[in-house]
Amino acid sequence: MTLLRTVGLLCLSLLLFVGRAHAGIIFHADLTTGAEAGANSFADQVNRGAPTTGPGLGLGPSRPLSFGTANFFLNDAGTALSFTATVFNIDFTGSQTPGPNDDLVAAHIHAGGAAAPTFPVVWGFFGAPFNDDNSPGALLNPKSDCTAFATGVGGTCSGTWDLPEGNITTLAAQLPNILAGRSYINFHTTQYSGGEIRGFLVQVPEPATLILVGLGLLGMAGMGRRTV
Chain-wide mean pLDDT for the chain? Predict the structure, then answer.
């Protein structure tokens, strides 16, 4: 009975999600230090024997590893990619922690047409380049779509990549790469100027697919209960 109740609640939550969903495509990204690559990235310094949580540049004490998540929504017309990201243990103001190693210096979306350790910057939303032309953050210094936590270390970022925007490219030109899984979001710090955390954009299954999975689980649970 407990299993049936649990699966039933899962199906109900999926149905409610479908009721709220709009046409479009959802992507999710888990940002980790281990996903980084390239020159002076987290992985690069680890490979060269640098401490994984140490000062690196000799500018401060050791610190906890950073991490985060991001969710993206591509509208049905394919003309706007909106996102919200939440990041922990990166200093968004330069004053959340005593040392400068964890200071955020830039944040971007990267994408490319072929597999590679790193992709070019195609749209920036903190520091340079900054390509969210319609954002109020374009008037800030540094330019920013991000807000620091009121307490703790980290912050949130949100913005919309519109069709004509991009860093020597456009959303229209990069959509094939994004849909093919060849894009990631990352955050650069003073210590890891090549990138401290990175997360690939992974397409989330359509709500209808999630419902079918939930109904299948419910059916399996019911069959299992009858055979006990």
Answer: 83
By three-state DSSP, how is residue 170 classified? coil
pLDDT digits (tens, 9 = 90+) for 92-120: 999 999 889 899 999 999 999 988 889 99
- Residue 152 structure tokens: 């703790």
Contact (Cβ atoms closer than 8 angstroms) between residue 73 and residue 82: yes
Please report, for the chain, the start and end positions of each structural domain, with discontinuous segments joined by +.
24-201
Q: Residue 32 gets which letter from DSSP? A: B
Residue 181 is predicted with a pLDDT of 96
Burial 1-38 (b: 16+ CB within 10 A, else e): eeeeeebeebbeebeeeeeeeeeebbbebebbbebbbb
Q: The pTM is what?
A: 0.78
